[in-house]
Amino acid sequence: MSNSPQSALECRNVTVKFGDVTALSEVSASFAPGQIHAVVGQNGAGKTTFARVAAGLVQPTLGAVNVMGRDIRTGQVSESRAAGVELVHQSFALPPSFTVAETMEFGATGKGGIYSRKGLAEKWRAHLAGLDVQTDLNRRIRDLPIETQQGIEIARALVTDARVLILDEPTAVLSPAGIDMLFARVRRLKERGVTVILILHKIREVLGIADTVTVLRGGRKVEGPLPVAEVSGERLANLIVGEAVAKTLDRHDRDALVGTKAPAHEDTDQPVPAAGPAILSMKAVSTRPDSGGIALDGIDLEIRPGEIVGIAGVEGNGQKTLVRAISALADLEGGSINLAGQDVTRQPLAVRRRIGLRIIPFERNVEGLSLTSSLWQNWSARELLQGSLLKSIRPAAIRDACDRALKAWSVHYNNAGQRAGSLSGGNAQKVILAREIDPDAKLIIAAQPTRGLDIGATAFVWQALRQARDRGAAILLISSDLDELFDISDRVVVMLSGRLNGEFHAPFDIGLVGAAMTGAAAGASA
Amino acid sequence: MNEIIISILRSGTPLIYVTLAGVIAQRAGVWNLGLEGLMIIGACATILGIMLTKSVGAAILIAILACVLASVLLWFVIDRLKANPIIAGLGLTGLGIGGTALAVQSIFGSQATVTAPFGIPKLGPAFGSYGVLSVAVAAMPFVVFAMWVVLRRTRFGLRLAACGEHPFAARSVGANPSRMRLAALAIGGVLCAIGGAELAAGSLQFFAQGMTAGRGFMAFAAVIFGAAHPVGATFAALFFAIVGALGIRAQLTFGDRIPHDLLQALPYLATVFGVWLSGKLRGGAKAASSFAELRDQ
């Protein structure tokens, strides 16, 4: 760049509408070249849409995108790439069956021709080494750990001479150590003259890495880009949440929601340590390997009434299998599972649910709800499936009961007959809560219960889980967000490669938990 | 021995061409169940073309044109009208079988077989006893090799596979999954036309109603058995052809002791076995793609 332009990337009045929904509204922002910029906001603020507009994946309804002082045609990936804008997706966009070398090649531009396997590996070895991605180039993406996959996705984005690299929530899937590695990589890119735009949602990460910060809320830009040196964490928190909502939140919750500082859990109204016989007791539980994820290897876990036990760990370390084992969906190889004093090792899910097992599943829209069925059908599934198959049902009565329940859980909906798919994420999750959190619930598994929810809905879910705990239910919370885990768990257990790797009590030490997540300090325990 | 190899190549070659068409579609993320229909359209168009133009080259061009048009129609229905690809493919098969019968009926006023005066040129006496095979048989290994190079050793092949496996990833690097599927189906149309032409005008010189007799579906099974790999699927198709040829041989030898219907069913039984085995070995087809994926994100 001989005459360096004012901005590496500039958006002018970008508006994006998906049908009736306005995802972005007149967003204008200009990012100076050679710096690390953060774009922050809660879920649903429009961060991902913003990134996709810049990358050409989403065609804005209105507005212009300017790269290095030149307007580009919007909505064309090839155009954005040619101008030097590359995007690293939150859930990586890498074909799982491709080898590392193939992944580099399929996104490359310039001369191609016929390659050989060996030649392809040779061609990309230096590129990956230059970015410090250590891996065998002939291994397949699906066999690689998440940290390596992210490195590969970044390397994939840099196969062309990228001037602007956008990373969409790159820290969401990483362990604390993985985040440090990522940030070191980002700083090296800055030294190479790449303009980096990081989409983040934790303030301490913003303050730790970025030169400037831009805040989005509800599809609008509220502030920015501001030099990070001139803005306090406190102010940033209020900008993200919005003054009005900020007042309604408990201070600890707000700090956990926006990740102001290293989380610890300093609850003063800590309930008396849970007593009584365990609701869930797993002894030496191992599962047979299957396609659903890594197998469990000798899990010993007890949860007592009135406690929230958090499961921390990098995604893909057996959390899904743990949920499947407790809900009778994975084949056990050994061990036993006790639920409220009964041995349910060989009992099907229906029996376990009758005892009081409730599940808020990982995939809200796949496992949690039937999106094409009505709200009352979704809501009534719990009781109907427990009853006899031949029992007659009265839809009108169920609809009334459903109406009462959904109102009690403050779900925003039009009528109980509308399809579950027509609700927003937060409201859909409330329907699941209304179904799964009832007075008979003894063990509630909450798997990533706040993923993708905005701050109001997240605080609501936390409150619901705390109330269930205070009523005496046992709660197993699985989350990849350490702030969330530390804020509401009474105890945190770390999963690594299908085993439990350490147990921690409040106040939590993020360093120790992080080390246990990556296996740096085996057997760490507080 | 030569005889049995010749009979394997005769029955295997049309199957292999159509299998390659299935492979390229599968890699692009389309379960092409229209192969049967495309193959019979190719067979019918070749024979009618020979009778019309008196030239094999022109006849094959006509067959290619017909099959590519039918494939583009399939693409339009799946991609633009967002129809279920399985149903649309089966619809194309129905259209092919019914449409060719209707064409023969309306042109010749009868349902009898249509015989052409000549077929695809033979290799000739220079190849000894193999001289009775058509040039399409000789070209087959080269076409398989070319498909392997294109699909497994070029960036186009990688992008095509990305479109099938992870359309969003393909879109992220600027590829257009919709256009890639069109390309895959159109190339498949060309291959189906050649497969159909070889079936009707290779060793035979006639078209009969329903003469593909499920070969298109067998080709699809070979795609699954061979994990949508061009060479793997070719060997799967060859395996089905070998079982078929051995079945005919067995009929001649123990036709009096074993019901010949059972022996005739051998290739189809082998197909079921092959698909079961591939599921056992790999846990399903590799380039599998759900409808949701096909619709991107």
State the secondary-structure class of chain A.
alpha/beta
The assigned CATH architecture of the largest domain in chain A is 3-Layer(aba) Sandwich
- Annotated CATH topology of the largest domain in chain A: Rossmann fold
Q: How far is it from the N-terminal to the C-terminal residue of chain A, by CA?
A: 53 Å
**Domains of chain A, number:** 3
Number of domains of chain B: 1
Q: Tell me the helix content of chain B.
A: over 70%
SSE succession of chain B: HHHHEHHHHEHHHHH
Largest sheet of chain A: 6 strands, mixed
Attribute tags:
heterodimer; A: 526 residues; alpha/beta; Rossmann fold; 6-stranded mixed β-sheet; 19 helices; globular; B: 297 residues; mainly alpha; ABC transporter involved in vitamin B12 uptake, BtuC; two-stranded antiparallel sheet; 2 strands; 73% helix
Explain this structure to me?
The complex is a heterodimer of chains A (about 525) and B (about 300). Chain A is α/β, with parallel strands linked by helices and about 525 residues long. Chain A folds into 3 domains: about 1-85 and about 160-235, Rossmann fold (3-Layer(aba) Sandwich); about 100-160, no CATH class; about 305-330 and about 345-520, Rossmann fold, CATH 3.40.50. In chain A, about 35% of the residues lie in helices and about 25% in strands. Chain A contains 19 helices and 20 strands. Chain A has helices at about 45-55, 75-85, 100-105, 115-130, 145-155, 175-190, 205-210, 235-240, 245-250, 250-260, 320-325, 350-355, 365-370, 375-385, 395-410, 425-435, 455-470, 480-490, 510-520; strands at about 10-20, 20-30, 35-40, 60-65, 70, 85-90, 165-170, 195-200, 210-215, 220-225, 280-285, 300-305, 310, 330-340, 340-345, 355-360, 445, 475-480, 490-495, 500-505. Chain A has a 6-stranded mixed beta sheet, sandwiched between helices. In chain A, a hairpin with a 2-residue loop joins strand 4 (about 60-65) and strand 5. In chain A, helix 3 (about 100-105) packs across helix 4 (about 115-130), helix 10 (about 250-260) runs antiparallel to helix 18 and helix 14 packs across helix 15. The longest helix of chain A is centred in the middle third of the chain and has 16 residues, at about 175-190. Mean pLDDT of chain A is about 90; it is low at about 520-525. By secondary structure, chain B is mainly alpha-helical. Chain B has one domain: Orthogonal Bundle (ABC transporter involved in vitamin B12 uptake, BtuC), CATH 1.10.3470. Chain B has 13 helices and 2 strands. Chain B has helices at about 1-25, 35-55, 55-80, 85-110, 135-150, 155-165, 165-170, 175-200, 215-225, 230-255, 260-265, 265-280, 290-295, and strands at about 115, 205. Chain B is globular and about 60 Å long. The interface of A and B includes residues 81, 89, 98, 102 and 112 of A.
